[in-house]
Amino acid sequence: MMRSLVEEWKHDCDLNGLLGDVGSLMEELFDGENGIKLMDATATFCQHQQHALDTLRQRCKKEKDDQLSRFLMEAESNPLCRKLQLKDMLPVEMQRLVKYPLLLETIAKYTQEPSEEQTKILNSVNSAKRILSAVNTAKRNAENLRRLEELQKRLVTTPYDRENFGNDFNSLNLTHYKLVHDGPLTWRYSRNKMIELHVVLLENVLILLTKTGDGSKLLLKVQVPCFDSLSVFYNVTDLA
Questions:
Q1: Residues 196, 234: Cα–Cα separation, whole Å
Q2: DSSP character at residue 65
Q3: What are the chain's domains?
Q4: Cβ-Cβ contacts under 8 Å for 119 (sequence gap 6 or more)
Q5: pLDDT for 191-223, tens place per residue?
């Protein structure tokens, strides 16, 4: 429908560059079956967008003259790319999703009120926001899962298993949980001793890990509080 309307707009001189009412067109794009298709497609694309960008930047930084770099240079020289590189094109979909509600709200602001046209546009605003919210959720979940996969590769439970016979955490799989937050933490173990930890807060589990000397591994160890002083956890940003 949109393509046919655009073609009609291009060839109809009587329109004088004005398309007219767009409410029905926007409803068809953002609502109903088409809205679901748009949401699914954009969520699938955008949830891996940042990872793809990071991987592309790292690859191009390391290999300046490999097959991929040569292919990208040739493809990006095509006039259809408008001098944009692949790393410039990948974020476009998410940027457009963010702008759709703002654009529609502006159109509604300058549409006759009240009117059927304005109602349709406002309905499209809500649909566009719903799609954006779903895409943001999919993106956040994918990034959290990728982070859990990274932590899982670095996780070592042997010290805990050795000290707690019968409590085998070797099969602990972080990817089965929902990540809430992870980051460095400083524990004041006693008056004169601070322990640097890495905390992983999952939806129903709090895991305290100790970094190895080179920081490549995260050890699950028993941490026994010292009760001769108040034991307090600090986020490193609070200690700055």
A1: 10
A2: S
A3: 21-154 (1.20.900.10), 159-235 (2.30.29.30)
A4: 23
A5: 788 888 999 999 988 898 998 888 899 998 766
